[in-house]
Amino acid sequence: MIFGSVCSGIEAASVAWLPLGWRCAFVSELEPFPSRVLAHHYSDVPNLGDFTSITPEQHEPIDVLVGGTPCQDFSVAGLRAGVGGDRGALSLEFLRLAGRARPRWIVWENVPGVLSSDGGRALGAFLGGLAELGYGFAYRVLDAQYFGLAQRR
Disulfide: which of 26, 52, 79, 83 matches 88 by Cβ 3.0-4.6 Å? Predict the structure, then answer.
């Protein structure tokens, strides 16, 4: 499997999937520190920067698009701006990238607050966007405390 990762941070997807024999075609990160970490650990993988402007010509075809767009506009600890906020709107940009890249699979990660943000319309907009692109979907809330971490997250 070949994947592209956006909002990559220090690249959890590669840590999980490279041992399975998967290959990362590109990462997409803007912040300086995570970008340096990516360059150090994955020097052979291009960082395409701003994911909102990635085009299919910039990367090989991918099987999976993975990303966790910023959560602050969905989080119950945040201002709850939803998809109308600058960061929340990036979830819709993620869908636009999926439409351009046309991967077989999409993995999108976010906080449980996306379920109730905008009265549930934020998740509805995302799932509706997936359907418009021709994708089916399933979602789950996974709490880190059940995966060996000493926190609810």
Answer: 83
* pLDDT, tens digit (0-9, with 9 covering 90-100), for 103-129: 999 999 999 999 999 999 999 999 999
What lies within 8 Å, CB to CB, of 65 at 6+ separation is: 3, 4, 6, 94, 97, 98, 101, 103, 105, 106, 107
Positions marked active-site: 71
Distances 98 to 3, 12, 44 between C-alpha atoms, Å: 12, 19, 23
| Residue 85 CB neighbours (<10 A) | 19
Taking the C-alpha atoms of residue 9 and residue 32, their distance in angstroms, rounded to an integer, is 10
